[in-house]
Design a protein that fits this description.
Layout (H helix, E strand, L loop, with lengths): L1 H23 L2 H8 E2 L6 H10 L4 E2 L2 E2 L2 E6 L2 H10 L1 E5 L2 E5 L4 E12 L2 E6 L3 E9 L5 E8 L2
Parallel strand pairs: 1-4
Antiparallel strand pairs: 2-3, 4-7, 5-6, 6-9, 7-8, 7-9, 9-10
GO molecular function: endonuclease activity; hydrolase activity; nucleic acid binding; RNA nuclease activity
Keywords: Disulfide bond, Endonuclease, Hydrolase, Nuclease, Secreted, Signal
Protein name: Ribonuclease A-domain domain-containing protein
Length: 146
């Protein structure tokens, strides 16, 4: 009986992981969370973008950090096509061959469902993404200076 319970528990965690992976494997969600045509994102814009795009509030509370990439979709998509393989914790991603201007919005205050953000200074960095089978970015795994 004990092994049956352990098997059910493992199956439960595997199915939860698959659900989370499939939700994140969406180019439209990547665009909504990370792409912007805005020239500048300041503190006020961080707050409005996080709220308007509905990315501030997660199941566990306010999202701690979100990074916006100031570039057109076609340029960001090129990372999946011509990016260099990059490994993080035994998972392979693609690192962009060019730097993008990025702005991160970091959580500064949290009052229940009210999330307030501060913009970090925009910087030029490489992006690291996971891609779907159609060579479209679906997850921003990180940003790098080198």
């Amino acid at each position: 009986m004990a092994s049956h319970g352990v098997s059910m528990m493992i199956l439960f965690f595997i199915s939860i992981s698959v659900i989370n992976i499939s939700r994140s494997q969406n180019p439209q969600a990547f665009q909504r969370k990370h792409m912007t045509f805005l020239d500048n994102i300041d503190h006020n814009r961080c707050n409005s973008e996080m709220q308007n795009r509905r990315i501030a509030l997660t199941r566990s509370g306010c999202k701690q950090l979100n990074t916006f990439i100031h570039a057109p979709e076609k340029l960001i998509d090129q990372t999946c096509v011509s990016g260099k393989p990059y490994v993080i914790q035994n998972l392979e991603y693609k690192k962009s061959s060019m730097k993008f201007r990025v702005t991160s919005c970091r959580l500064s205050q949290e009052y229940g469902k009210d999330c307030k953000y501060k913009a970090e200074e925009s910087r030029w960095k490489y992006i690291v993404v996971s891609c779907n089978q159609n060579d479209r970015p679906v997850h921003l795994a990180g940003i790098l200076t080198w």
